[in-house]
Write a structure and sequence with these properties.
Helix content: 40-55%
Radius of gyration: 25 Å
Strand content: 5-15%
Strand order of the largest sheet: 3-2-1-4-5
């Protein structure tokens, strides 16, 4: 009876969707109609399984564009429209972003720096420009606060710190981690908002001692630090929504896993041509040390 209904309605609805809704197998339906599944249907089944695997591995964080890149990396050629269709049929949905909310507060007694960065979010090499910001993380025991430093070239998180209070020390610890990990040559731009954690004397003094140029967003203009805010929006969507009700220790551990194990090393970034931050930097450094190919004809003529 169910196969008859599917057969009668197949012009209106996809067969694979009706089979799933009616709890019958696709192969069983095609056997009922007297023929085996088409080559296309068999391919769709295999591709759907590959998509389910990628969706689970990435904890439902990817949409059709990134899933397509995952399959292409596995030598599975597939178009984005087909990925989108198969995801809809399999009800594989990416988590949606929520709006980012600012947490830092300015101190009117502190001096601020001009906006040197001027929204130039695409430097030509690593460690030319960094961006910093702070967000809050809800836990069952109260708030945690996360400060990060991003390299704008690769979007890599190069420094971060978590604490139970949003203090000057929080931002300073994240900056010190970045300075330990990277080669901050004089002239590097460090950009942040005008929060008191960044206008504090200790933070400004550390930047000055390393020859780093301090840059700050204009008053009330979140777009001046859009890359850092985008990172927090991604963090909220891809991680924090799954951590509701967890205690502080669990949230801190999950943030570590996300930043160091996933975001920097496994997450494909559309801005980077669907490479990870680590891959993007590695390709840049490889291109720097690889000599250009020799033109043999010119060499012979010389």
């Amino acid at each position: 009876m169910r196969f008859q209904f599917i057969h009668a309605e197949k012009a209106e609805f996809p067969v694979v969707v009706m089979c799933r809704c009616l709890d019958v197998s696709l192969a069983g339906y095609y056997e009922w109609v007297g023929r085996g599944p088409s080559q296309r249907a068999q391919e769709d089944q295999k591709l759907t399984e590959a998509l389910r695997e990628s969706h689970a591995e990435n904890r439902e964080r990817y949409g059709s564009r990134r899933h397509r890149q995952v399959l292409n990396r596995r030598d599975i050629a597939i178009g984005r429209r087909r990925v989108g269709r198969l995801m809809r049929e399999a009800e594989l949905r990416a988590k949606r972003r929520r709006p980012y909310r600012c947490t830092t507060q300015a101190d009117p007694t502190h001096s601020v720096a001009p906006n040197i960065l001027a929204r130039d979010f695409r430097p030509s090499r690593p460690d030319q420009a960094w961006a910093s910001d702070i967000t809050y993380l809800p836990t069952s025991e109260g708030w945690l606060y996360l400060a990060v430093v991003l390299d704008l070239f690769s979007r890599r998180v190069i420094g971060w710190s978590i604490g139970v209070r949003m203090t000057q020390r929080l931002a300073l610890d994240a900056l010190q981690m970045a300075l330990r990990r990277r080669r901050a040559a004089p002239g590097l731009i460090h950009h942040s908002d005008r929060g008191s954690q960044y206008t504090a004397a200790a933070h400004r003094r550390l930047l000055t001692s390393r020859g780093i140029v301090c840059s700050m967003s204009r008053r009330g203009n979140c777009w001046d630090n859009a890359v850092a805010e985008s990172f927090f929006a991604t963090l909220e969507t891809e991680l924090l929504v799954d951590l509701r009700g967890r205690d502080r220790e669990e949230v801190q551990q999950e943030v570590f896993r996300y930043v160091e194990g996933y975001y920097n090393r496994r997450r494909l970034h559309s801005t980077l041509g669907y490479l990870t931050p680590v891959e993007y930097e590695a390709r840049f450094h490889q291109a720097e040390v690889t000599p250009p190919p020799t033109n043999t004809s010119e060499a012979t003529a010389a």
